[in-house]
Amino acid sequence: MIWTGLLILIILVSAYLRLPLLLLSLLLAAGLVALNIFSDVGSSQKILLWILFAAVFVPLNLKPVRLNLFSRAIYRVMKKVMPTISQTEQEALDAGDVWWEAELFSGKPDFSFLQNLPKPELSDAEQAFLDGPVEEFCEMLDDWQITHVDYDLSPEAWQFAKDNGLFALIIPEQYDGKDYSAYCHSQVVMKIGSRSGSAAVTVMVPNSLGPGKLLMTYGTEEQKDYYLPRLAKGIDIPCFGLTGPDAGSDAGAMPDTGVVCYGSYEGKENVLGIRLNWAKRYITLAPVATLLGIAFKLKDPEHLLSEQEDRGITLALIKRETKGVEVGRRHFPANHAFMNGPIRGKDVFVPLDSIIGGVDYVGKGWAMLMECLGDGRAISLPALGTAAGKMAAKYTGGYSRIRQQFHTPIGYFEGVEEALTEIAGQTYVMDASRSLVAVALDSGAVPSVISAIVKLQVMERMRGVINHAMDIHGGHGICMGPHNHLCRAYQLTPVGITVEGANILTRTMIIFGQGAMRSHPYLLKEVQAVHNKNQKQGIKDFDNALFAHLGFIISNIVRSFWLGLSFAKFVNTPGDKDTSRYYQQLVRMSSAFALLSDICFGVLGGSLKRREKISGRLADALSNMYVISAVLKHYENQGSHKQDLILVKWACEDALFNVQTALKGIMKNLPVPFVGALCNFIIFPLTKPYQRPDDRTGHKVARLTLSSNETLDRLSAGVYKSNNKDNATGRIAHALQFVLKTNELQHKLRDAYKQGRLLSRNRDAYIEAKEKNIITDGEYELLVETDEAIQNAIKVDEFSFSGWKIETP
Ligand SMILES: Cc1cc2nc3c(=O)[nH]c(=O)nc-3n(C[C@H](O)[C@H](O)[C@H](O)COP(=O)(O)OP(=O)(O)OC[C@H]3O[C@@H](n4cnc5c(N)ncnc54)[C@H](O)[C@@H]3O)c2cc1C
């Protein structure tokens, strides 16, 4: 028994540690030798053990043997059943880089990767830009005027943005741009977004998917020299049209075409170019754009460029004034006033040098877009979502403290507290998530899967946070007007969720669909090997990948079970006594996720693509593991302030619970219930280990939002904070200061009332308290001033009857 146990232990420990197969074989052989020498096991049993060992480990270690015995046959089957990868899928796979998600996929994340990442920091010039022009721009913005009266930014705001480089954040200095970091870009959008969603979206587009990014990455020197300085100075306003009435999520199905032909252009005859026909909609900045980026399918029926007729998706730049272009009409997106509208083109002729990157980039449009979409996904939208969270944490928290019902600040009621907890906790997650991805971009990586995760997670969490904030504000959030800071953010939520690929699709198709192939250590290698035209090499590569993959699965089974049994307590991780257990749970969930991903591939095969409920849950698990990593890194980046630990605890416990829910959901819904039950036993041997954060934790998190404290300052850092005690947010901050200052006085009045020394607890009591010398004259003045500040902060706008009418010129 002891000897059998020893041999099994060697196998289990080797699998847990992922020792190479050869080393495991040598260790087992050594174990058998020891058994032969020291044990009294019968010789027939010894021989049987050696035969077993030789039967399994000799062929496994001799590649030619295992290749001919197993791999070749499996390869043939796979070649028949494995679906081919379409060109669009291949381009999506090739776009961007694999980043931290590959470690999460590995089942054994190497935390040195995370630890070695620098802090996101602003240079002096970037900080000055935020404190100077961005602050000034925010002060110029009157969101009510923009969204309800003018339906546009003021001419002064437009000009200020152009003159001060707000459209030039990413353009290199040599082209008169700012060349700021991704983190700075995120801070700028976040700050503007906290003041006006319409202004933030206006600034976002030229700095993300506008033609600027495409030109910088792929443009010819002539294109860059001409257009980039014009875009940087706002001489040209860009837009980019991909989506059309018949091609939304499935943008690759666009019916828009360009046909290579000769035509006349700007007075010149016989110019080789493209005749374009397109219909696009929902295009941001289109109504005012002077430079249109258009995606279309290029055809060359006369073979003027090559023998190939269908050349694929191609991108071109078209000047607004070109004949046949129809631009200028507007959509009205969710009561916001950023420019958005359709663009159509009928027989628009442009020369070949209008193609972004020139003829070398004909047909590469999809790959170019995939590569460049990352900025919008990773920077602009998450910055907008985080801005909403930070504003809610600061001002809904403040409002909950100043607004009283039943003689109690509403934030003290448990029902409201629950909503405040979500606001603060999720805001911490959003801030951490967007900061970490900015670091990736600043290091030069294009993390396509992580970008999609951050967009999805931040925008979904924004939706929850804004809903909670609206609930807390009640009528104060609903009644619109210049003093309402919340309702436009509420209306903006679906915009952020839909643009750059709607979230349902991002969750169910992109994150795991792309992530699995790209980030799995062996899957892509196996697929590539099967599709390798050189069959001999293909079988060899397949054999290597397959056996490494099998070892990986066995290791993840052992790891998941042991980590489940031991609650991952013995795993060596970074972090201190407060955070290391979250790192440990991340290791545990990473093993479980890696195992379950492989089980899903095995059980569902190619149909996993269509089983979006399963792949969506896998995406949830991966996303929430990213969230935990981001939160831990954020805490350390911010200086590991112990006061912030409660947010870390809440966020990690919430995310771990989400991972568990996702994994349990997958196991419950696998088509072979036995497999699901077995996985459940391996991954969660001691039932459900994670619970949602408890009420005590939630209480502490919520309380952070009800007063002034350093943690709240860090949580709400980077948004526009008005000092004007009469505007939408400034009045809440102003009233809060008074409320906090008069807290003790209110207690004094309450005690006097309870003792029967005062007849009421209402405002009338102030005079009575002064007359009875319960408070001084100065204290009375302070209470009256506080009351005025509160009344000012809780009031909502009122309109005259005629105010409702929209004047038509
Ligand atoms: C305000 C605004 C600004 C925009 N700006 C631009 C711009 O500047 N340039 C540009 O080119 N586009 C822009 N868009 C377009 C945007 O990218 C699209 O709206 C988005 O890609 C979704 O397309 P759709 O609205 O046609 O929805 P549809 O494609 O009709 O999708 C409807 C729903 O079906 C879901 N769905 C579709 N296919 C699947 C699937 N296979 N699996 C699961 N779910 C699926 C989607 O997730 C969505 O929930 C903008 C959109 C808006 C609203």
Q: Would you tell me the overall average pLDDT?
A: 94
Largest sheet: 7 strands, mixed
- β-strand number: 9
The residue ranges in which pLDDT falls below 50 over 5 or more consecutive positions are none
Principal-axis shape: flat
The level of helicity is: 55-70%
| Main structural class | alpha+beta
Ligands and ions found: flavin-adenine dinucleotide
Rg from alpha-carbon coordinates: 31 Å
Distance between the termini: 94 Å
The number of helical runs is 32
Q: What amount of the residues lies in strands?
A: 5-15%
Written account of the structure:
This protein is an alpha+beta fold. The protein is built from 32 helices and nine strands. The longest helix has 38 residues, at 365-402. The protein is flat and about 105 Å long. The mean pLDDT is 94. The protein binds flavin-adenine dinucleotide. Flavin-adenine dinucleotide is lined by residues 239-243, 248-249, 282-284, 333, 340, 495, 498-502, 504-505, 508-509, 612.
